[in-house]
C-alpha cells in the first residue's frame, strides 16, 4: 500500500524552510519584500489545499496543520495569559516561552504580519496563526473542489 501524499503538509514543511530563509534575508530592511514573499507562501499553501481537492482527498486532510497549530496555540495562550509570562519574541523580553517560539518558527511564512500583530497583542498573533492555518488551505480546497467536481460530473 502506497502512502498518499498530503500536499498541504508537504507545502507547509517547504514553507517552514523557505520562511526561515526569508527571515534570514532581513525583512526589516525591505518590508515590502517580506510581505510579498509571505503572500506568495500563503498562495503556495492554498495550492496544497487545491491539490488535495484535485486528488479527491477528504476535507479533513487539509486541517491537520490547523489542528496542530490549535494545540500549540492553546498552550501558548495559556502560557502568555494564564501563567502571566510576558513574552515578546521581537521585543527582547527576558521571559521566553519555548512553545510560542516554536509556533512562530514553524509559521515563519507569516513573519511580516506577526511582527506587526505581536506588537499590539501577543495572543492576537497566535490567534492569527491558528486562523491562517485553517483558512488558507481551506480556500484552496474549496476552489479545487468546485473546479474538479464540475469535471467529474461532466464525464
TrEMBL record:
Name of the protein described by the UniProt record: Uncharacterized protein
Superkingdom of this protein's organism: Bacteria
This protein's UniProt keywords: Membrane, Transmembrane, Transmembrane helix
Transmembrane portions of the chain: 7-26, 32-51, 63-83, 89-111, 123-143
Amino acid at each position: 500500500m502506497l502512502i498518499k501524499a498530503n500536499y498541504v503538509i508537504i507545502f507547509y514543511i517547504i514553507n517552514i524552510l523557505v520562511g526561515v530563509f526569508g527571515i534570514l534575508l532581513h525583512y526589516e530592511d525591505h518590508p515590502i519584500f517580506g510581505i510579498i514573499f509571505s503572500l506568495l507562501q500563503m498562495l503556495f499553501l492554498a495550492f496544497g489545499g487545491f491539490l488535495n481537492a484535485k486528488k479527491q482527498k477528504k476535507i479533513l486532510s487539509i486541517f491537520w496543520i490547523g489542528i496542530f497549530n490549535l494545540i500549540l496555540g492553546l498552550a501558548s495562550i495559556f502560557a502568555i495569559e494564564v501563567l502571566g509570562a510576558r513574552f515578546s519574541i521581537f521585543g527582547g523580553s527576558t521571559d521566553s516561552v519555548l512553545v510560542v517560539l516554536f509556533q512562530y518558527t514553524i509559521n515563519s511564512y507569516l513573519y511580516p504580519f506577526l511582527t506587526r500583530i505581536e506588537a499590539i497583542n501577543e495572543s492576537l498573533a497566535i490567534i492569527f496563526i491558528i486562523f491562517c492555518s485553517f483558512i488558507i488551505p481551506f480556500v484552496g480546497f474549496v476552489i479545487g473542489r468546485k473546479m474538479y467536481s464540475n469535471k467529474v460530473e461532466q464525464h
